[in-house]
Structures are given as structure tokens and as C-alpha cells.
Write a structure and sequence with these properties.
The protein is mainly alpha-helical. Helices cover about 65% and strands about 5% of the residues. The chain folds into two domains: about 120 residues, no CATH class; about 170 residues, Zincin-like.
Length: about 300
């Protein structure tokens, strides 16, 4: 974790390390398996090319993650002159947390949400939507910003970006295996069908494992950011109120708009979904009930008289 006054979480550090190790091992195994399969039917060169392209795309996504996320949200960076109150809040929180100030962005959309992205604290950006600026009061917005700054300080934004990129590699390798299978079929290679099925199965298994690993990490990191942000501001009730308002307003957002922004769910403070259970295995976030219970416990702890 980056050094800051946000509370340390050894559980988050251990999970980030484990997820990155497992994903790295999975994709080494994937590439080796596909090359072995293709090598037996004479198509090893294609898998190598597709693998290198997939890794290149994943590296580009990681390197330019801040730009990609801002573009996906149609957000723009704002100066202190354009958004003085927003910058003022982030200035105070960064001074309180003793951390570098990230860039600040605003996305012009009615959906109330916020996210942080970037490959390092120096390249990070914290972005809010115009919807959340209209929905929350100053205390609630400050609590949300503390949550997002916690992601930056703990560097879990970087890990989630790298972990999400793994799915791109698996997807491209799957498509490459499919293309190779069709090409070998045309050449009447008797092993082509077996090679295609084997390569597709290996790629899909790796993609499925990486999918669930990133969601397990995502749910834990959201609980960690809630906890860290609440202790930094000493106002867990403000974050609880913000989460309730955001979740309530999400139900009024058109489904078309929610689906359009679903790819960013792992980075939002609250997922862009409505009408389904947040406790599903595939969810990127813990349930609202879990988050509110944790914040209530922190509030009770802070309210307890000091002996």
C-alpha cells in the first residue's frame, strides 16, 4: 500500500497479492497450453501472435487506464477555477490523509456515482458525475471522495485495472483459438476439431476463474474503502447516507443508461444496476446491507465514550 494516514488493511494487501499471483500463473498456463495444443496441429505461430497481441492490448489498457476510463464515462478534467468546492474538498482530504492530490474529473450524466482510476497515485484521477453533485450534500460528498481516495492510497485501483485486463487476454486467445480451429478445418487436418475444442475450453476456464477472482477482490476492496474513508473523516453516518441516496436514485435511472455504464461497475462506488440482488456471486460490490452494517459498527465505536 502507499503510505498515507488511511488505515492499513493487511487483508486487502494479501488478497491483491494472491489475485495477481493466481492470475499471472493462470495466464502463463493458458499460453503454454494453447501453444502445446496448436503445436501438435501445426498452428503454434497463430497462438503466439494472438497471445502477444492480447498481452499488448492489456498493457495498453493498464498504461492508459485513466484516459480509457475518463473517455468511457465521457468525463473531463476540471481545474480549481471550474470546480472550486470539489477541489477544496479533495485538497482537505488529501492533506488529512497525507497523500498526493489526484487529478479531478467530472462526468456530465444524471447517474449519481463516483470512481477513481489510474495506474499509480501520481497518475490517478478521481471523478464524480453531475448527478452525484446534485444528489448529495457537502458532508455526504466528502465521505464519498474519502472512499475514492482510499482506493488510490491503497493502490487497489492499479490491481483491479491489471486484473480486469486479464479478461481481455483470455478473450483474444479464445477468439484466436476459434480462428485457428476454422483455418485448420479448411486444411482438413484431422486434429483441428479436437485442438479447437481443447483450446476453447482452456481459454474459457481461465476467463471464468479470472472473472470470479476479480469480483471477490472487488467486493472486499469496497468494504475496505468504506472503512478507511469512514475512519479518515470520522463520519461513517455521512457515507451510509450517501450510499442509501445513490442506491435509491439508481432505481430511477433508465436501464439503457445503466447498461451503457455497466463496464465501469468494478470502479464505481455503487454498481450501475437496479432491481437485482447485490449479494449475487457475480456482483462487483457487497450488498448495501453489509456496507451499512459495517458503517453502523464504526459509528458505534466512534460514539463510545473514552475511558
Amino acid at each position: 500500500m502507499a503510505r498515507s494516514r488511511f488505515i492499513k488493511d493487511s487483508g486487502l494487501t494479501a488478497r491483491m497479492t494472491l489475485v495477481m499471483f493466481l492470475l499471472g500463473a493462470l495466464f502463463v498456463a493458458l499460453i503454454v497450453a494453447l501453444m502445446a495444443i496448436a503445436g501438435r496441429v501445426g498452428g503454434g505461430g497463430l497462438v503466439v501472435v494472438v497471445g502477444l497481441v492480447g498481452i499488448g492490448v492489456a498493457f495498453w489498457q493498464w498504461w492508459s487506464s485513466d484516459k480509457v476510463a475518463m473517455r468511457a464515462m465521457r468525463a473531463r478534467e476540471v481545474s480549481p477555477q471550474e470546480a472550486p468546492e470539489l477541489h477544496g474538498m479533495i485538497d482537505r482530504l488529501c492533506a488529512l490523509a497525507d497523500m498526493p492530490k489526484p487529478r479531478v474529473g467530472v462526468a456530465d450524466m444524471s447517474m449519481p456515482n463516483a470512481f477513481a482510476t489510474g495506474r499509480s497515485p501520481e497518475r490517478a484521477v478521481v471523478c464524480v458525475t453531475t448527478g452525484i453533485l446534485r444528489t448529495l450534500d457537502a458532508e455526504e460528498l466528502e465521505a464519498v471522495l474519502a472512499h475514492e481516495l482510499s482506493h488510490v492510497a491503497h493502490r487497489d485501483v492499479l490491481v483491479m485495472t491489471a486484473a480486469s485486463s486479464a479478461g481481455i487476454v483470455a478473450g483474444m486467445l479464445t477468439n484466436g483459438a476459434q480462428y485457428g480451429g476454422f483455418a485448420l478445418s479448411r486444411s482438413r487436418n484431422n486434429n483441428a476439431a479436437v485442438a479447437f475444442v481443447a483450446a476453447l475450453a482452456v481459454s474459457l476456464v481461465v476467463y471464468a476463474i479470472s472473472f470470479f477472482l476479480t469480483r471477490l477482490l472487488s467486493r472486499y476492496r469496497e468494504m475496505c474503502a468504506d472503512r478507511s474513508g469512514a475512519y479518515l473523516t470520522m463520519k461513517p453516518a455521512a457515507l451510509a447516507s450517501a450510499l442509501q441516496k445513490i442506491s435509491g436514485d439508481m432505481a430511477r435511472i433508465p436501464q439503457r443508461d445503466l447498461r451503457a455504464n455497466a463496464a465501469m461497475n468494478a470502479f464505481f462506488i455503487a454498481p450501475a444496476v437496479s432491481g437485482i440482488s447485490f449479494s449475487q456471486l457475480t456482483s462487483t460490490h457487497p450488498s448495501l446491507e453489509q456496507r451499512l452494517e459495517q458503517l453502523a459498527r464504526i459509528q458505534a465505536e466512534l460514539d463510545r465514550p473514552v475511558a
